[in-house]
Design goal:
Metallo-beta-lactamase, Chain A; 8 helices; 298 residues; binds zinc ion; 16 strands; 7-stranded mixed β-sheet; alpha+beta
Length: 298
């Protein structure tokens, strides 16, 4: 009888361990288009919208030799670095928040949200870092209707003014934002505002006049979605002075990048970047001189 009981205990133990192993491997199963991570007490899902290439010529301030040397390190032949467009979903008590929406119907955000088990109808909040098309294009579907039927869109006051303040440059932005505006689902904030409980807008002006990040309180770890602080990770962590052609105000963008990298390295917060190599979530540390390095979280 005793032996039989021992056998049962052993079987139960084995089943328990197997279940643990299986649930663990399922919990951490990742697919190419999405990546789930725990940051403090936050559930974060990185969603890939697109991958491609960014030409060397987009970088400013560096010599061709400096650029080629960095390119050789990542095995990048030709005249371009690999490039990425990522968006991030954060589960909040009030519902799911999506930071940026990718390029739009021709890209992969909606497909990869689905792969990750996220229904666009479950996105309650959309936080926009800025109004470039690779961040707001995905607000609408092919017919120009909201791709997120239940979401309220939040944007910085200055960014709104720059793109939508009655000038030509905002035509594309209008197409993306108007459907939300007309249904009273568009709200403006200023840096420092608590946009939602536990989510603060951070001023990262420079890349565009109202470019911002979003700082999520995660208990013992904070999470900063920093938008376009870095466009080419292979170069700009090492050379934060390197500017990007698309920076509206290059000196200000450079100053903001240096400051944000220094602060992130100092406080150890987890950061997420729209153009960091997918999944684009990790930590920054200081190396020598003015340089930094990025380590993806595992
Ligand atoms: Zn961008």
């Amino acid at each position: 009888m005793k032996g039989y009981f021992g056998f049962l205990v052993a079987i139960a133990g084995l089943v328990f361990v197997l279940t643990l192993v299986l649930s663990r491997s399922q919990a951490y199963a990742q697919k190419a288009g999405f990546y789930k991570a725990k940051v403090g007490n936050l559930e974060v899902t990185a969603i890939s919208d697109a991958t491609g290439e960014m030409g060397f010529g987009l970088l400013g301030e560096l010599t061709n030799e400096q650029i080629s040397l960095e390119a050789a390190k990542v095995g990048s032949g030709g005249q371009a670095f690999p490039s990425y467009v990522n968006a991030f979903v954060v589960d909040l008590p009030s519902g799911k928040a999506l930071v940026d929406t990718g390029n739009g119907p021709q890209a992969n955000l909606l497909k990869n949200l689905k792969e990750a088990g996220i229904d666009p109808a479950d996105i309650k909040v959309i936080l926009l870092t800025h109004f470039h098309m690779d961040h707001i294009g995905g607000l609408i579907d092919q017919s120009g209707n909201p791709a997120f039927p239940n979401a309220v869109v939040y944007a910085d006051t200055k960014e709104d003014e720059y793109w939508l303040g009655g000038n030509d440059r905002g035509q594309q932005a209008q197409k993306s934002i108007n459907p939300y505006k007309s249904s009273d689902r568009y709200k403006l904030f200023s840096p420092g505002d608590e946009v939602l409980p536990g989510v603060k807008a951070v001023e990262l002006y420079g890349h565009t006049p109202g470019h911002v990040g979003f700082l999520f309180e995660g208990g013992d770890e904070d999470f900063l979605a920093w938008g376009d602080i870095i466009h080419i990770a292979y170069v700009q962590f090492k050379y934060p002075e390197a500017t990007m052609q698309y920076d509206v105000d290059k000196p200000k963008a450079r100053e903001t990048r240096k400051k944000t990298l220094a602060e992130s390295a100092e406080n150890g917060q987890v950061v997420a970047g729209s153009h960091l190599p997918f999944p684009g979530i990790g930590r920054v540390s200081k190396t020598e001189g003015e340089s930094f390095t990025f380590k993806p979280i595992d």
